[in-house]
């Protein structure tokens, strides 16, 4: 038999993908009466209490895989990556149907002889399917703001995935907790720490502008990313300031170069104060004055507003301290790296 591989991951360890052919999908619909009480028992299904459900489910699953394989082979492929399976109940007109949707990316992979394949040529395991189904159930809960149970959280931590993080940031308050409360939590931090840093960073910075609480996560989990912060600075200096104290696990000279650009960016922030002529106080002479971004008037000889401490770039005393600390940190890193 020709070797064929199905996997839930986007990339295959040790296997080179020569060509991506496109997404393939299959829907298998079955009447709920065929499997009585099927929907009601779905929750218990994976407890393994009922053999007939298990059997029926496996059949649906096998048909879906078969269909995906058929489509992939027609396209000239020999592997499916990012395989995903989902279940949905369709009801209407007093009838209830059950649908299994499977999708995957068809591709041509260099399948060398070292990879062990099962009898039917695919390497997906029942455990794997169970995990994907469980994962999709949790993602659905997250997208509908449903409280998660302790077992959901355990499941997320046992099989960590960036998909969870996307959903947490996008649909939920950025945080999930075992007690269902929406707050910054150890569990979120734990989930982040279980994932690959290079996978987490793009997701974190993608959602941070719309979800400011993520700043805490960036600091708490040492997810400082020079490129992303430089990009934030060009859009909104406050977003950059809120994560400027964050660290990254290791720094190299490339990081230093970008961090120096960040410092330069702060120094070159535009003057947003109003420079005008006016009087200070009732009997003051008409002279050059500055109006700070918060509306306080002061004389140009002060380098920041004496009332609120904001300078012409709109940086507060605290902001300037954060930027100063960042400068010091960059100097230290640079010195250590250059061995002086
Ligand atoms: Zn002021």
Automatic annotation (TrEMBL):
Coiled coil: none annotated. Signal peptide: none annotated. PANTHER family: UPF0145 PROTEIN YBJQ. This is YbjQ family protein. InterPro entries: UPF0145_dom_sf (IPR035439), UPF0145_YbjQ-like (IPR002765). Gene3D superfamilies: Hypothetical protein apc22750. Chain B. Belongs to the UPF0145 family. It comes from the Bacteria.
